[in-house]
Sequence to fold (290 residues):
Amino acid sequence: MVTRSDQRFLVGLIGAGIGTSMSPPLHELEADRQGLRYYYQLIDLHDRGQTVGELLAAARGLGFRGLNITHPAKQEVLEYLDELSPEAAELGAVNTVVFEPGRTVGHNTDRYGFAAGLSRALPGVPFEHVVQLGAGGAGAAVASALAAAGVRRLTLADLDAGRARRLARAMSVHPSMTVEIIGPADAPERLKTADGLVNATPIGMEGHPGVPVAPEHLHAGLWVADVIYRPLETELIRAARDRGLRVADGGGMVVSQAAASFRLFTGRTPDEPRMISDFARLAGPGGRHV
Fold:
């Protein structure tokens, strides 16, 4: 029998179009197992006329322990923080904010989340050359995780060339990986010689329908990963599966980053395998829409 703690945790998520987020049940189910009084609140930027900074200040004043941050605010939030963890400072993006006495600290659990999800879904895939679409907040975490996984050559495509250049400079801390910057229109040509493709853009998520690269460019032997989990099967993931390619959907990343955020909010060690099982049940037939 789990003993209920008297300690209370009020946490939440700031982002746009987050009504079907899986974060509340993932966090609250794990908290229930640990006997914690824990409530996870969604704070949708589409529904409020406030800036990210105003929402952070309001949450701190209301007694929140911390907040997760998602699209489109992972980089915007930086200017409202007192301190960054080393990982968040390297990546220039924050997905977890913890309110500590006298200071507001930004962390990034996306890098761990993507790396853990990728290793579970695609063990043993080649990492010589990967094409990555997107250099925003999620893209920074993905690029760093790919470097740690052993990628030797990263081809980075983003509509914002300046943002891509900033990410390439940040990745200079990983000298074993070279980074080439291209425009999105050049991605199909680079895919011809790539081992893997990662979508770190919003294309394919709820409110941003479509596919970031035409399916005919997904060649045999290519592996495909997507950071999006709403929907879990994006058009890109579906097209890759239809062609018999190995894929990693965004579910693995969201569960592992949630587990790492839970640890930051509570100081407790989460049962990550149980959280993976929670996600599978919630996202499966008859489960919560994702």
Q: What stands out?
A: The mean pLDDT is 94. The chain has two domains: 8-108+252-283, 111-249. The radius of gyration is 19 Å. The chain has ten helices and twelve strands.
